[in-house]
Amino acid sequence: MLEIKNLVVQIEDKRILNGLDLTVNDGEVAAIMGPNGSGKSTLSYVIAGKADYEVLDGEVLLDGENILEMAPDERAAAGLFLAFQYPLEIPGVATMTFLKAALNAQRKARGEEELSTPDFMRRVYGAAEQLEIDRDMLKRALNVGFSGGEKKRMEILQMALLQPRFCVLDETDSGLDIDALRIVSEGVNALRAENRSFLVITHYQRLLNHIVPDTVHVMSQGRVVKSGGKELALELEASGYAEYRATEAA
C-alpha cells in the first residue's frame, strides 16, 4: 500500500504540490489525470526520489515506511519502480549489462543470491518475447537509437524483471502508436497482482482502455480534487479539463 499524506513540494521556490493526499491499496491500479501543470509528473519524481524537488511537508508511506527518508536506490530495493515518460539513452552501456546489474543489485540489497548468467538469460529472453522485443535490441547500448515504442517496451521489460511492489507509470502512452500501446499495456496487465499496485499517470482515456484502472483521481493545483471509478476517465474524455483549468485560474 502507498499512502501520501499532506505532501507539499516546491522546486526553485515554486510550489507544485499543495497538501496532496492519496492512497493506493495493494493490488489496485490507480490512474492520475489532470491538466498540464497540475503536478502529475512532479508527484512521480518525488515518489522516485529525483533531486532538486524540496519536500516542505508530508509523508509518502510504502507499506508503512516513509520512503522520503530513503535514497533512490533504497526506494528501488524496497520495491518502487518508475517508468519514465522519456527514457534516457545511455551510450556505451550494453542493455544486457545494465539489466543484469540492476537485477542483481536489488537482489543483493534484499539479501538474495545473485542470479547466475544462465538463469538471468532465461528470465530476460522470456520477458522480452512477451513484449515482442527482438533479441538484437538486447545487444545494443541501452535505449540508443530505439524508437519511442522500443524505449517504453524496455521500461516494461525492466519492470517485469525487477518485480516491484509499487509501479509508477509516468505518461507511458506518450509517443506510442496503436501497436506499441497494445504491447506495452499487455506487459503491464500481465504484472497485475494482489501484492503489486500501480499509479498510472496519463492525459488521455486511450491508455485506460487497455490498462483498466480501479480508481481514477483528478489533480488540479497540486492536489487531488476529485476521485471516482473508471467511469470518471470517460467523463474527462467527454468534457475535458475545462472546469479544472478554471479552478487553477481562479
Automatic annotation (TrEMBL):
Q: Which domain of life is it from?
A: Bacteria
Keywords annotated in UniProt: ATP-binding, Nucleotide-binding
ABC transporter domain: from which residue to which, for each copy? 2-246
Q: Name one Pfam family in it.
A: ABC_tran
Kindly indicate whether the keyword ATP-binding belongs to this entry.
Answer: yes
Protein biosynthesis in keyword set: no
Read off the InterPro entries from this record: AAA+_ATPase, ABC_transporter-like_ATP-bd, ABC_transporter-like_CS, FeS-cluster_ATPase_SufC, P-loop_NTPase
Identify its protein family: Belongs to the ABC transporter superfamily. Ycf16 family.
Q: What is this protein called?
A: ATP-dependent transporter SufC
Report the source organism.
Methylobacterium isbiliense
Q: What is the lineage of its organism?
A: Bacteria, Pseudomonadati, Pseudomonadota, Alphaproteobacteria, Hyphomicrobiales
